[in-house]
Amino acid sequence: MRVNFPISNFKSQIISMSTIEEFSGYSPTWCPGCGDWGIGAALKKALVDLNYSPSNVLVVFGIGCSGNMNDFLNAYAIHSLHGRALPNAIGMKIAQHDKPVIAIVGDGDCYGEGGNHFMHACRGNHDITVIVHDNSVYGLTTGQVAPTAQKGFKSKSTPGGIIELPLNPLTLAVSQGATFISQGFAGRVPDLIELIKKAIQHRGFSLVNILQPCVTFNKVNTYEYYREKAYDLPQDWNTGNFEEAMKKCAEPTSIEKFPLGVIYQVEKPTFTDELPQLKEKTLFQRDRFTDLDSLLGEFE
Amino acid sequence: MQSLLWKIGGEAGFGIMTTGLDFAKIATRQGYQIAGYMEYPSLIRGGHNTYEIHISVDKLHSSKYHIDVLVCLNKETFDLYKKRLSPDSIVFYDKEMFEITDQNITALHLPLKETLKNENAPVFMMNTITIGASMAVFNWPLEVHHAMIEKTFGKKGEEVVSINKKMSQIGYDYVKQHYPDKSFPAFQARKTDDTNLVMTGNDAFSLGALIGDCRLYSAYPMTPTSTVLTRMAEYAEKVGIVVRHAEDEISVINTALGSAFAGVRSSVGTSGGGFALMTESLSFAGVAEIPVVIFLGQRPGPATGMPTWTEQGDLLFAVHAGHGEFPKIVLAPGNLEEMYSLTAEAFNLADRYQTPVIVISDKHVNESIWSTSKIALKLFSKSYEVDRGKIASEFSNLQSQISNYKRYQFASDGISPMLIPGLQGHFYQANSYEHIEDGHTTELSKSRVQQVNKRNKKEITYLKNHFKGPEIIGDINTSDVVFVSWGSNKGSILDAMQLLKEVGKTTSLIHFTHLFPLDEKAIQKVFKLKKRYILIENNSHGQFGRLLRQQTGIDIEEKLLKYDGRQIFREEIIDYLKIEM
Fold first, then answer.
1. pTM for this prediction
2. Which residue is closest to B203 within chain A, CA to CA?
3. What is the dihedral of CA A95, A101, A104, A107, to 10 degrees?
4. One GO MF term, please (chain B) (predicted)?
5. Domain B3-192 fold
6. What is the CATH number of domain B198-383?
7. Mind telling me how many Å the CA of A179 is from chain B's nearest CA?
8. Helix or strand (DSSP H, E) at B558
9. Per the CB < 8 Å rule, is B240 touching A286?
């Protein structure tokens, strides 16, 4: 359960134990071996472990192979436009901040098309969990290069190799004020379950950047590649040090190493915490404002 | 209709806006109706600002050409507006700033600079002196101005209040002493039963949104709707709504779609450029069937255009905005009363039809001011009922018994029950992809056709149940000329009709508020008589004319179009008809 929830009069939404089957929608259509399978399984297990049911989680799906989870995961959900999942998630949270809000997005979706929203969602410390399927390609449109692809990556849209440097979502998130920054690997599902649980339980903006091999269109960032380049953060890693987090987050760029685990986590008031009008009830549950008369004096 | 026009002009940044608004409130406190508007460049300092207030006993709808009192805080004001003066006009100026040599003009010197120097007062207090002087020529009690000073400057402390009062007194005394014969005896203070409020169209939108139970307002600042954002932000904590000033207009509308999905009435405000950024998401709202109210304040485009001026150039863009085919409702208020009532109604329509509703307006109605009855506003607020249609948080409220809930269930009226997320034992997705009844994605031809037909039915249901035909003002049967228009042009047309009536010329107006979709049969009936119809629009394409022809086959050949960034004035309509007044 989420801890330290500041609102005293919310009734608990938790009913009896849920199951993975309850969260399971259609059978996934992802390619055999795709990293998304592991992410989908880990997310469902995390929600069950946290005792949520499909009726008390709010989810937004972006557009891409990741967003196609819309039909595979049961929840009150929006299948959004490409790039726009985060502002939808922010709106959902503002309206019903007693429920967890999860955004399922891809790297092209969230860091490319929706890059502006990502930066500003970090700044606002909106209490949403952003799960990014980071595979460095646009899988659904058959493998064009995505913003996290390494320099020189050859794809249909960059036959000579990509000229731009890869975007580093981790340093971007730290610098823009995100309060929970983590990285997982789709090939390590048990760890992913724990990471997603921690992210959902965190109060504030939480990022789970998941290194997700695309077996069809990315022949560089494979399972083998990440098994070699990714490593677990030490047990005693201090998640509260901004400068150290910044250095750690820079490793994919600086030394081509990928730290796994919670890199940075601090407690700060969330966007809705800062709104006194939401202290007692959610925006949805509030009574309608009717005292129009009290506003008219200044027009006389 | 007896009326006076008071106008003040000066350098931008010197408090002209506050002064104009205060003078308008003073006039209503004396029992008068007002219509006022301001002109300002897209600059913070250095340009030229003006505010004019048209004052009358009777309800006023627009400004007028002839200026009765011109307050010049610099020479530019005089040079720009002397053409609108007559020998009866009073011009306040300071001969230390410039000379007026024209003997045909009643130029009254006020020692503005000298007073500032003597009293060691800041330059923007020149305005206060001129209001004091204006109180004197209107024969209005100076206490009314002093009460306004306390209201406007009270927060800034006693010292600011007392020096302003002193400035006001100096202006008043100077006129009484030096120009005792200059006054307007017909405009004495008068008693009225109703209190008149002075507000902008943006204020009326904000109040209408609150009446309509809007709980989330999201926006990115853009003239001419920025003052809705600031007004709603000012109210937010007190009234219990949330205002999000998002990073861009794409985030603005998607925030609203997220909160609307989660059960909260949501609205966004913008102008043409910001609306352009929203259009992909407008289409998303259409297919996912998420209710949202979009406030579009037009200004002259294309692109950045003329940001602080007015035009009705985005009507066809609004009507056709968004890729793909989906239902959409476009409403256009033409004055304050229509603004608050149609805005509140827009929230009911968005919910009933679970689709975007656009409230289209323009800078003239957004930022100009009028007086409006407080009693009428309160009555409207009391009588307004929130109708969420088939949106509910529990099945008992969904107007149908559903065991297996389907978000996009077929319905003869096109409207499926919308369950607000949270009910235990249920879940669904609002899908931007084409979907089957339960919300899952589909590419099957049969399902596609079923859902398209379902959404299209909403338009038919709307036309049957909630479309309102145009308001007809005056008697078409006896009119020589029938004006056809929409939006803020209404004010000038009504005032022109009144003047024409005074010289024995009968005209009428067909004023549209529910612009899209249009009911072909109902509207054809309105135009059944052979008349001289004149389309009046504040754009160069005659966009409503094109829409009317597209939707109903009615073609209005004669057009009075204006597109210089200024609203249409009543005199321009009379001039167009070549009628001597």
1. 0.96
2. A299
3. 80
4. oxidoreductase activity, acting on the aldehyde or oxo group of donors
5. Pyruvate-ferredoxin Oxidoreductase; domain 3 (3.40.920)
6. 3.40.50.970
7. 19
8. strand B558-561
9. yes
